[in-house]
Amino acid sequence: MTTEARTAGRIRRHARVRKHVSGTGEKPRLAVFRSLSHIYAQVIDDRSGRTVAAASDLDVKEGAPAAIKKSKSERAKRVGQLVAERAKAVGIGDVVFDRGGYRYHGRVKALADAARESGLKF
Length: 122
Hints:
This protein is α+β, with helices and mostly antiparallel strands. Helix content is 43%, strand content 19%. The protein contains 4 helices and 4 strands, in the order H-E-E-E-H-H-E-H. The protein has helices spanning 3-18, 57-63, 72-89, 107-117; strands spanning 29-34, 39-45, 50-56, 96-98. Helix 3 (72-89) packs parallel to helix 4 (107-117). The longest helix has 18 residues, at 72-89. It is globular and about 40 Å long.
């Protein structure tokens, strides 16, 4: 399967999920984007169209040089903790999870579990 076909399939799956998943001011959407090297998470209020909180493993790399050596799953856990801390700092406790068309395993699951452990409810 080519990269273009794989990406197109993910975008179709994400569109199907987005028909049903939408963030509000009270319960914004925790969206995950995963590339080959990095992982990003945003807490988005879809009604106002703004990002409330965001984190990525690039933030983690800047914070600690030892984090560069860690596995992608370990960095995803740290991103989950970081996005949860930033969301709680602006008063967000409940979110809806948007896996972005990716399977719920590996780095996506690690990020979600870490966000839950850090206090986000979804």
